Amino acid sequence: MLEGFKKFIFRGNVIDLAVGVIIGSAFGAIVNSLVADILTPLIGMIFGTPDFSGLKLGALNVGKFINAVVSFLMVGFALYFFVVTPMNKLQEISRKKEPEVTPASPPEEIILLREIRDALKR
């Protein structure tokens, strides 16, 4: 039973997943800081207030919901323009640098064997 657990834990996928979760968590902190410390104050300078939590509609606290939606959109904006777009550009550049692989002609022995095969079929 412990042997099976050991195989499971040291399997490559589990380690990759663990590393991905940890890196994702650290990266989430970076994106949250970008939104909270840079984009939100920028919106506050442009529109006057970056916080809508004071807005209420009767007993409903609509402002917190608006804050959550705006925060979600800012995180999406930050991820797209500061991560996805540059990564796509880098991948595009790396694809251009890779030479196209043209299939090499088969060795003479293969050509000869194909001719013999075709002659036997006839």
From TrEMBL:
UniProt keywords, alphabetically: Cell membrane, Ion channel, Ion transport, Membrane, Transmembrane, Transmembrane helix, Transport
> Which Pfam families does the entry mention?
MscL
Q: Origin, by domain of life?
A: Bacteria
Entry's transmembrane regions: 12-35, 65-87
| SUPFAM superfamilies per UniProt | Gated mechanosensitive channel (SSF81330)
Q: Which Gene3D superfamilies match?
A: Large-conductance mechanosensitive channel, MscL, domain 1
Instruction: Tell me what topology the record assigns in the membrane.
Output: Multi-pass membrane protein
A GO cellular component annotation in the UniProt record: plasma membrane
InterPro entries given in the database record: Mechanosensitive_channel_CS, MS_channel, MSC/AndL, MscL_channel
Question: Where does it primarily localize?
Answer: membrane
Q: Which PANTHER family match?
A: LARGE-CONDUCTANCE MECHANOSENSITIVE CHANNEL, MECHANOSENSITIVE CHANNEL MSCL
Q: Which HAMAP family did the record assign?
A: MscL
The UniProt family comment states: Belongs to the MscL family.
State how it assembles. Homopentamer.
What this protein is called in its record is: Large-conductance mechanosensitive channel
